[in-house]
Amino acid sequence: MSTATAATGEHVTQPAGGAHERFFAAGRTQLVDEHDRVLWQTLQRLTEGGKRFRPLLLSRTYAALGGEDQELAATIGEAVELLHTAFVIHDDVIDGDLVRRGRPNVGGVFSRRAAAVGASQERARNYGDAAGILAGDLALAGAVREVALSGAPPAVVVRLLDLLERVLHRSAAGELADVRVSLTGDASLADVLAIAEWKTAAYSFQLPLQAAAILAQAGDEVVAALEEVGRSLGLAFQLRDDLDGVFGEVEQTGKDPLCDLREGKCTALITVARSTHLWDELAPYVGAPDLTPEGAVRARELLVACGARAAVEAMVSELRAAAVAAIRGLPCAAADALLEMVDLLVPRHTPAVTIREHAGAASGGRQDVRGAA
Amino acid sequence: MSTATAATGEHVTQPAGGAHERFFAAGRTQLVDEHDRVLWQTLQRLTEGGKRFRPLLLSRTYAALGGEDQELAATIGEAVELLHTAFVIHDDVIDGDLVRRGRPNVGGVFSRRAAAVGASQERARNYGDAAGILAGDLALAGAVREVALSGAPPAVVVRLLDLLERVLHRSAAGELADVRVSLTGDASLADVLAIAEWKTAAYSFQLPLQAAAILAQAGDEVVAALEEVGRSLGLAFQLRDDLDGVFGEVEQTGKDPLCDLREGKCTALITVARSTHLWDELAPYVGAPDLTPEGAVRARELLVACGARAAVEAMVSELRAAAVAAIRGLPCAAADALLEMVDLLVPRHTPAVTIREHAGAASGGRQDVRGAA
């Protein structure tokens, strides 16, 4: 259930000063005690760093559609990033994760503080969960507030808040579905793609793209086209992230390549593999907490041999092509800017892989996938 | 950590039609699947029923301050109620509660759904927690959105959103502190009162009162006076609720009178008792999950005998008097309306108690309390 983290090639690691600083400075005037201060500091730290491709997608699209108030675009971009932070924090509580990007997240910081005053492991965990829920709440409410007070014209604010509401519903439904399929482990490929669309494409792609169009007061047909661009691009991004999670190099993705396999994450890659004749051989490696590096090499070989890797690569290509086709229907300058962003977010070339390729093994699951994609 | 539930004497159990219906109808157009539909229905059910004294406090104060747009006041009142629902839902996740007002809450509904498809108890619980976090998120974002789109003049919306932000920070800090003091069980009376102020008085009293003044475009001195009214009234309400939780009749409070004692809730009543000479005798009854009705009778006798009950009753009277004094500084019509509300929310007379009173035992803890209150 982790949020997509594929490398974008170009990192924008510092938040735009204005809106971000204003938000956290305003919050600092409200703090009531030391614990509250630590909560706020931890929240601020979690909004910094990261790839910040959402504000970039928003501001570039906005400018390409003729928008001239980059400060306004940056404010909405910060709100989207704050929403992302809220989702990540609540996602970590739901998943029971205490670490994010190699450092303690909200739950990690606060469960340690509880342990330091002698709380049992269970109670410390509960305190960490409470802090995570509350910090996420502050970020979420902050995101809606920042949009409402962005200074955009009133009619634009209404449209932005409507878009935000739609995205919130989809994200919640996607997160819920993601937890649900992990209960039974029998998700279909259609389920997995719907979850990726609701949980990732909606807020990370459709929201910044469509917010940019609404801000630039582009026509309804542009806003509608960007919904399709966001859907295809978001799905391609998520599926590429799933591939990177298993086949990527740690230097490139920043993720331990054994992590997704150990967790048994219900990705498109695994779902396709489950429908193939090699699944019985592969299954013991998936979701094995004690998976060894040698076991992971074997699992990767099997994911290639059963055709799942090629099938998902093909889906990425198709979704990328669908995004490009939808982009070509946009005004020229916007199309040019977005084609650049596609290359940045879903590079055309497959990432380096750590195992030898099985040249003849790439067709197994492909028919299944095309049927469902 | 449960939210205050003292009977108000006058119940307003049906939400004002307009804003409430519009919000849930708009949400229904966003649903993506059956599970999402159940989430939304459960959320709507949880916003209905209850005492709804916050919208009442807001609309009466608004009218008394000369406000004439009752529909607008009702919309903001619904937003406050939605915020309350969000807090209650997240509070239940934090406390691990699956029932609210005798019916399954969000976590209860969704953990049962998971169990029905064969999930283990732990996984079903995790699914219920996820649903609770997500439903609370939708309610919280909805509350901010409803204020932003209420149709109030733009400058009023800004002031309302600033008030809301302040209240959100305090509520989060209060909830966090509430979980924290339960870790060590050594909260001082000052801690307990600060938690009640941040966690209950801020959003349930200061928010509706001050929002009413902002909406009615009352002067800054009125808004400031209402902060003090809300603080005193909210604390009095919470302390009365704590007394009712132990000494009240179930017919009157709707709460099992053994519940707070069994849970070992860190209330002002218990905190005062802890500082008295009878604590060693009382302690075994507090936080005893298997407390019997006979044990509860003995615990109540000891809470009276040690002076804790009288001390907290005295604090309620003092806080009530402070609220009344602050109210008398308001314009006449507003003062009259609020004095009525004080009688409704914190009735002057002590509720019926189920044990015999110990006439001579009421002075033990009082000095401590006055010092801290």
Tell me which protein chains meet in the greatest interface and how many residues each side has. Answer: A-B, 62 and 62 residues
- What's the overall geometry of chain A? flat
Which range does the strand content of chain A fall in? under 5%
**How many distinct beta strands of chain A?**
2
Question: Which structural category fits the helices and strands of chain A?
Answer: mainly alpha
- Average pLDDT reading of chain A: 88
As an assembly, this protein is homodimer
Order of helices and strands of chain A: HHHHEEHHHHHHHHHHHHH
The neighbouring-strand order within the major sheet of chain A is 1-2
Radius of gyration of chain A: 21 Å
Uncertain residue segments of chain A: 1-13, 352-373
Task: Note down, in words, how this protein is organized.
Two copies of one chain form a homodimer. In chain A, strands 1-2 form a two-stranded antiparallel ribbon. With 373 residues, chain A is mainly alpha-helical. In chain A, helix 3 runs antiparallel to helix 4 and helix 15 packs parallel to helix 17. The N terminus and C terminus of chain A are likely disordered. The longest helix of chain A has 31 residues. In chain A, strand 1 and strand 2 form a beta hairpin. Chain A is 71% helix and 1% strand. At the A-B interface, helix 2, helix 4, helix 6 and helix 7 of A face helix 2, helix 4, helix 6 and helix 7 of B.
